[in-house]
Design brief:
Largest sheet: 7 strands, mixed
Number of helices: 0
Helix content: under 10%
Strand content: over 45%
Number of strands: 11
Structural class: mainly beta
Radius of gyration: 13 Å
Order of helices and strands: EEEEEEEEEEE
Distance between the termini: 40 Å
Shape: globular
Length: 123
């Protein structure tokens, strides 16, 4: 059964860093056939795109609010999100998602989602 499992969330002070991990398992093809993305969500709002990456580093995209602070990466096990200089407005549940399609920017583009990991930025 395909699944994505996020980890690495937690409580951090403003200006701090966290690294989220999303391990993918059970997919029929090797992970280099898939694109990944991170989204985040706060109560009463839709999911916001944070970052995504296809099979090449040059395909990476970032949401405007995280550019220059977050970095996405991937390997044969899954996808990662290095988050630096965290701000209170980064507080959200973070989800990773995966797709075999050529579009990897908006939530409907994705086929599978993880369960989410909470990130709280507070002093």
């Amino acid at each position: 059964q395909p699944q994505l499992v996020e980890s690495g969330g937690g409580l951090v002070q403003p200006g701090g860093s966290l690294r989220l991990s999303c391990r993918a398992a059970g997919f029929p093809l090797s992970l280099d056939h898939y694109a990944f993305a991170w989204f985040r969500q706060v109560p009463r709002k839709g999911r916001e795109g944070v970052s995504g990456m296809g099979v090449t580093d040059s395909s990476a995209w970032y949401g405007e609010s995280v550019k220059g602070r977050f970095t996405i990466s991937r390997d044969n096990n899954g996808v990662y999100l290095q988050m630096n200089d965290l701000k209170s407005e980064d507080t959200a549940v973070y989800y990773c998602a995966i797709t075999q399609g050529w579009r990897f920017r908006d939530p409907p583009d994705f086929d599978y989602w993880g369960q989410g990991t909470q990130v709280t930025v507070s002093s």
